[in-house]
Amino acid sequence: MSVSKMEKLTAVVPASDADALLGRLMRLGAVSITRDALPDAAKARLQGHAPEAAAEAARIASILPVLAKRSKRKKPLFSQAVPYDPQEFKRSGQEERAQKTVTEAEHVLARIEELKSKLAAERALMQSLLPYLDHKRPLNDPGTQTAAVWLGSLPAGIKTDKLRAVADEVGFVAEVLSSDNRGVYLSIVTHRDAEGDTQKALASLGFVRAAHAEDEGLATDIFDASQKREHELEREIARLDAGLDVLAENLTEVEILYDMAATREITEKNKESLFATKSCAILTGWVPAREEARVTRALEKCGAAYEFTPPEEGDDVPVLLRNNAYARNFEWVLGMYSYPKYGKFDPTLVMSIFYFLIFGLMFADAGYGLFMSIICFGAVKWLRPRESMKRFLLMFGCCGISCLIFGVLFGAYFGDFPLAFMKNFLKLPPEKMPNLALLPSAEANLAILFDPIQNPMGFLLVSLGIGALHLLGGMAVKAYTLCREKKVLDALFDVGSYWLLFGGIATVFFKKSVGLGLIITGVVMILATQGRAKKGVLGKMIGGFGGIYALINYVSDLLSYSRILALGLAAGVIAQVVNLLATMKGASFIGFLVMIVVFIIGHLLNLVINVLGTFVHTARLQYIEFFGRFYEEGGTPFRPMTVSEKYSTEIPTEDEDAEVPTA
User: Is the confidence at residue 350, as pLDDT, over 90?
Assistant: First the structure.
């Protein structure tokens, strides 16, 4: 539960060794490069080849979805990094094969796109010919010396009587070839001397000439030839597509190739963050103090001149959290809010304990909790997800244990399923139903303490009690941080005075004189000290009364914890409704099937909905009520430069000449 101490690194190497230096440091994953102002010795930024490297990585990335779609490789639930040795990958010819796969796939895709364009043109031609297949003359037939022949269409729904009337009036012959919901298709024969009148008359009806003036031959012959070409194109596309299926067998190698290319892109971008003199490259960055020895060995292997210095005032020092194995799983929850400032208190451990307790109270159900823990811990063990997903699953697995514990205390096993099963399915009489609650209960009960649905006031008191403990914990952290900064009096005045007041309020119900004494002492301390930073007597008095007024904030914050009651009751009531629907058919074969189906679907939906709601509201109580007491946010997360591991991960090697892999 601390923030790692950081050291500022400055390293100098010959410009030609910049790749080797970055390669070693990226593999260590222990150096965060900075892009601050130029050092005095530097003249400019070191030039890299980031655009070319980015283009190569993008080129490979564009092929991966095509191959992944066709690959027969078993797909894990969570993405897993494939281990590989960069030197062996090159030496064995796998890199060359992967490059060849990408190139061939590019050519195949380009050819497929070309053929698909031709295929679309053939299908468009056939579609345009369909209405004229009954026309018995060539499509490009201009007619005779005295008669013109036109093909075209009128809007759908045109009355043939109207067409005939116009034809008789103007003196042309119209033959309906076909019709559909888009139009009526015609063959028009008109005397050449009357072409103008015919065109005007047909235009008034919405006539549109067909675009087949250059198509030689009968419509049926052209259609058949186009259809033949269509089939040939489809066969060629299918052949090429089958070739992609073969190329997809090399998907893993192409994924490794992508990570190598992406690593090169990262390297080139990092090079542009280095400073340069006439012949040297200068790297500046941050290193966790505990990693100084490892980084030193890497620098010495590169022959670099280097220096580690402590942070100076005004430096934007990145923050790296250090927590035990349990609390580390909750760091991402803290990261959703904000990292603490460098050198300040890391609340992850304390927050994780309260998160564990509040999550379990909000979703107190042994069945759901056990299910969550088995799924999450099982996924981590058997599916071996990446680190970020692993932490996510482990956190919810731990919260599942909390749900299990509180579920046993409150007698919730998928809601009241055991009782509903005994009552509705087995038809047991009330006197034979179990009642295990320590507190008096008139109804069947599996709770060790009490059933929150039967005793909501008791559950509200528990919720507010946990809330009070949470708020006091935040105040305790504030007192600790003030004492660590040697502000003991501030801790006494700003925290101790309120603790005296709260202690008096709690004590007055048991021993009135002692309680009143503590209350009076606390109020006097608040009035006398909360305005100490203000100027003038009036300012100090206003500050003191402001400290008393702040008690309203404590009360409102405490009432916020009633959401524990709301979330807990919501999950329990929904579960009871599901159980009622599942068991209402009684003890029969159909009833058993209905129970299984309703139980699975209903409780899965309840689990998903309430896990999401519980996560959000538990986090909200940490961010607003708990952190608001002491937290100094605004830290920049420590993000070391690393190699790309989207699909694969390099096998650690002791090869002193190893460099960043090139694509």
Answer: yes
